[in-house]
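Tokens in:
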């Protein structure tokens, strides 16, 4: 394809995604389980109208919408880098065991250490000690990353080995989590299960700020070294010939990618398929040039998660469903279609 045509296609694709993101962001503000009119919602957005409406818009919906955008970006960036550095399109936060380890950490904090129980706060359900639980989830997620990377060193970070170790360790974490839940009482078990739901309703501005900081740092790093990621796709010998210390670069990249996932999962629960789906679709649309792929995957991940969140609030009248379930329901058939089309093309 002609370079100018390819560049035009990439710019158009990114512009469309940005437009969709803005439209969904605005629509999400006025879509919810309450029977608030558009005018009342608009007034509340600018600090006018009833106090109840202001609370719904500014303290419940807006943090949730921002969290959807940031989590979509974080998980998509994480999946993109994991797939590139492991040279495996199946690599994602879930296949490398990060999500499973986070759930194990949360279950230990809630069930064994008694770190959190479900509480209702004005119709919004929360964990009583969210930072303690999220902290344990984050430590276990990060620890799993370091363990997978350490074990992968023995096979020189072979792409298949890294993914297989991640899947195996993730299965181990799931088994331990099941045993812990088996001996839990009803209260702690329900709290642990609730935490594992990918639920944007628990988002706060404090959560958003934590994710934002990690996203900004990681995105800047990835974009600065975008040309290195392009070189990695050419093969290890090509990357080494360009003076890239591939072992160190792979370690730092996967660590940052896992950090993005660990922070997101520890605060919002498991949100599946975003990190796996967004990079694969954008590679087919705008190619493998990471200068554009990182931006495209980030935008597309945010669009998917915002759209899924809107569906989660509209599917049942007056009830907001866990968005993690919606992304899995949407993502699974799409991913199967991608696999089948890929095999047919091959």
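Residues out:
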């Amino acid at each position: 394809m002609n370079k100018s045509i390819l560049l035009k296609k990439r710019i158009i694709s990114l512009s469309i995604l940005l437009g969709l993101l803005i439209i969904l962001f605005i629509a999400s503000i006025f879509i919810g389980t309450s029977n608030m009119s558009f005018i009342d919602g608009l007034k509340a957005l600018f600090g006018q109208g009833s106090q109840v409406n202001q609370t719904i818009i500014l303290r419940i919906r807006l943090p949730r919408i921002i969290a959807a955008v940031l989590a979509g970006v974080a998980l998509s960036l994480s999946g993109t880098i994991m797939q590139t550095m492991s040279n495996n399109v199946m690599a994602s936060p879930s296949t490398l065991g990060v999500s499973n380890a986070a759930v194990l950490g949360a279950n230990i904090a809630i069930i064994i250490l008694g770190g959190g129980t479900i509480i209702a706060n004005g119709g919004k359900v929360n964990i009583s000690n969210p930072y303690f639980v999220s902290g344990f989830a984050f430590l276990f997620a990060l620890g799993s990353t370091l363990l997978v990377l350490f074990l992968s060193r023995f096979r020189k970070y072979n792409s298949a080995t890294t993914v297989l170790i991640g899947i195996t360790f993730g299965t181990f974490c799931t088994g331990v989590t099941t045993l812990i839940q088996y001996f839990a009482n009803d209260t702690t078990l329900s709290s642990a299960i609730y935490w594992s739901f990918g639920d944007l309703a628990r988002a706060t501005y404090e959560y958003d700020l934590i994710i934002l900081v990690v996203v900004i740092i990681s995105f800047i790093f990835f974009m600065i070294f975008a040309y290195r990621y392009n070189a990695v796709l050419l093969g290890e010998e090509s990357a080494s010939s360009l003076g890239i210390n591939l072992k160190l670069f792979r370690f730092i990249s996967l660590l940052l990618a896992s950090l993005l996932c660990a922070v997101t999962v520890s605060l919002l629960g498991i949100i599946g398929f975003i990190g796996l789906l967004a990079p694969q679709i954008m590679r087919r649309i705008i190619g493998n040039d990471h200068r554009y792929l990182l931006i495209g995957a980030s935008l597309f991940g945010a669009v998917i998660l915002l759209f899924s969140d809107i569906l989660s609030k509209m599917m049942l009248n007056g009830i907001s469903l866990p968005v993690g379930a919606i992304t899995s329901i949407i993502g699974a058939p799409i991913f199967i279609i991608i696999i089948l089309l890929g095999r047919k093309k091959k």
